[in-house]
Each structure stands twice: as structure tokens, then as C-alpha cells.
Amino acid sequence: MADPAIAFDGGWYDKEEKPELSTDKSETLAKYSEFHQSCMDIQMTMWGEAAELMEDLATAHCYCEYTKLEDLESITWADKNAAEIECANQGTISKKEAFIWGALPLHRQRLEEEQK
Fold first, then answer.
1. Rg of the chain taking only CA atoms, in angstroms
2. pLDDT of 43-79, one tens digit each?
3. Which residues are CB-contacts of 1 (< 8 A; sequence separation ≥ 6)?
4. What is the pTM of this model?
5. What's the rounded Cα separation, in Å, for the pair 116 and 113?
6. d(C-alpha 49, C-alpha 55), whole Å
7. Of 72, 76, 63, 69, nearest to 103 (Cα)?
8. What is the pLDDT of residues 13-50, one digit of tens each?
9. Distance, first Cα to last Cα, the chain
10. Do residues 100 and 56 lie in contact, with contact meaning Cβ atoms separated by under 8 Å?
11. Which of 13, 77, 103, 108 has the highest Cβ tally under 10 A?
């Protein structure tokens, strides 16, 4: 299998270079619900119909990415790729169940806190 960062480039493969990524965290990392929706759109596109069957895994993956990025002062493409790879590794078949059950309650809690 290919490295996840190589296998899926975020949809910019056909362009000569990726768009600039702002190093201002407030511009790059939206509030959680917005980040999550964007991430889920990518997951659903990447996995197609199988994504619906893997919705819990995709949700856990998106939560994982957000939490890896939110503690950084600024975010680069390397940071985003590193978060993607680390979260993909955490969601491998051997660890999938623990990964999902660890992230889902925290995901729901974050969404509830944003609605308050």
C-alpha cells in the first residue's frame, strides 16, 4: 500500500503546486464543526460508498487530525500531512476499534460545546 500522503494528495494532484497554506492558525483551522465537515467530505470522496460503512472510523480520523493540529502555533502542509499519516496509522485494522471508541465521545462532546 502507498503512504496515505502520497496515495491521496487532497485533490490538488493535477495542479502544478498546492495553494498556499496560511500559517495563521485562526485562518487555517476553522472551528471544530467546520473542520470536521470539510474533513468528512474528503473522507467520503476518498472512500466513496464504503465511507458510509466506515463513518465512525472517518469521524474518529477527522477528530484525530483536528486535535493534532489545534495545539500548533502555526500549521504547514508538512504538519497537515504528518497529522493525516499519524491518524491513518492509529486507525489501522489492528487498532480500529479502540481508535473509534476513544474519539467518538470526544467528537460528540466538542460538537455539543460549540452549540452552547
1. 14
2. 777 766 666 667 778 888 889 999 999 988 888 989 9
3. 7
4. 0.51
5. 5
6. 10
7. 63
8. 455 565 555 556 666 677 888 888 888 888 777 766 66
9. 43
10. yes
11. 103
